[in-house]
Amino acid sequence: MDENTSRVIEQRKVKINELKQNNIQLYPNNFKNSHSIEEIKFMIEKDPESLGENGIIFSVAGRMMAVNKMGKSSFIRYKDGTGQIQAYLKKDVIGDDKYTLFKKLDIGDFVGIKGPLFKTKTGEWTIIAQEFQLVSKALRPLPEKFHGLKDPEKRYRQRYLDLIMNKETRDIFMKRSRTISAMRSFFENNGFMEVETPMMQPLPGGAEATPFKTWHNALSMELYLRIAPELYLKRLVVGGFEKVFEINRNFRNEGVSTKHNPEFTMVEFYQAYADYKDLMSFTEKMFSFVAKEVTGSEIIEYQGQSIDFSKKWTRLSMIDSLIKIGGIDSETIKDKESLLKFAAKNNIEIKKKENYGKVLTKLFDILVEPALIQPTFITGYPVEVSPLSRKSDSNPDFTDRFELFIAGKEIANGFSELNDPEDQYERFLQQAAQRDEGDEEAHIMDMDYVEALEYGMPPTAGQGIGIDRLVMLLTDSDSIREVILFPHMRKSK
């Protein structure tokens, strides 16, 4: 805490003691709002003739953000969760005691004001206070208004201050809420049922990632925070729920960056009697719908580039993308050793022990992914990196899987589900061997899931979409920390 802030707090403590000695309640709970500021502004816009000093009496509480004291009268600006409005206080209207109380208050305090509207000489609609009340006293000062709160570290650690001071931040999280609401509406309108599956799981599965571990005392067993809900959602498809979705948190014990947070929000959904091509078409419609609901348009601006959701999205196989965009010739791409030589020549570090599928995928991540600006589905992922995906009928070395990329970021992952229990068992064995070789992110054998498949799962397609990254696009945010209310940070020194 800097010296100036400490001095202000001490001054406010003196004021607080004076108010207490005068029997002023610092934190009453008896003021009732009649309208929000947003509702008042809507009435001003739609029916100004019904307003005025002889019109409706409004009761509105909010946080004082600016004060202009002029002796026996003052103007203040205060805001609630919907907007900001001006109020006019006159000593001879609210009385000596209330006006004296007002003069002892500070920016950041919550006040309640009751009165009608009038229009000032400058044409601004203003509440003229007939009654005035302290609603909640603030001890600490708000950040200095001129400079605002710009330091990202402070904004993320003290998000409440960020929300108070920066309208842009509030707008981001209002859009986030609308994004999730629109997505939920789209699923429900298409016959999907929302479900919830366990956050703590005896086996981590559904993705290649390092889990967080915890311990349950009563059960005396180790549990894992889920890395994905996939295997539980597919158990529900086995059970007869043929269209399900879940919007919830996943946890992966990985680093933080502008694109990663160890705790993040995803939607996963599964549809029986559908394949990965059906889901690509479904996703195009969903994103167009959500973008229009949230931004008003199917064309958005992201970091200086126009992203168009309305056009037909590009569909390209991983192999073709590495040839057309990555610059690898059609002969080199067929052979792991040739690819490793290509990587070494281009200063791309890949371990020699990696299998062909992982070599392909790592080259794609570096050479192709950053170049995919407009919505692009990359299909045909290798079996080695797709342990839960159905093999392609035309080439069993690859799977009926896609990932969606927009603005150089992976946004979604989907595939036709592997519903052959014997094949799934063999894939799990291959993953277990990779774990034995040191790959901590490889899948763990899940015999209960294999048993579920043995009861029969209809042909199914499923997909996961990163909500945080989608919100980044819709709010033109360059970091995932901008769209998560309380992102994970290192301990402050």
Describe this structure in words.
By secondary structure, this protein is an alpha+beta fold. It folds into two domains: 3-142, OB fold (Dihydrolipoamide Acetyltransferase, E2P), CATH 2.40.50.140; 164-325 and 368-482, 2-Layer Sandwich (BirA Bifunctional Protein, domain 2), CATH 3.30.930.10. Helices cover 34% and strands 23% of the residues. The protein contains 15 helices and 20 strands. It has helices at 3-21, 37-46, 91-94, 96-103, 152-157, 159-165, 167-189, 230-238, 276-295, 318-324, 336-345, 356-367, 421-436, 447-454, 467-475, and strands at residues 58-70, 73-79, 84-90, 110-115, 117-119, 125-128, 131-136, 193-194, 200-201, 213-216, 221-225, 243-251, 263-272, 299-302, 305-308, 314-317, 376-379, 401-406, 409-416, 460-466. The strands form four sheets. Strands 8-12-13-20-19-18-17-16 form an eight-stranded mixed beta sheet, sandwiched between helices. Strands 5-6-3-2-1-4-7 form a seven-stranded mixed beta sheet. Strand 1 and strand 2 form a beta hairpin. The longest helix is centred in the middle third of the chain and has 23 residues, at 167-189. The chain is elongated and about 85 Å long.
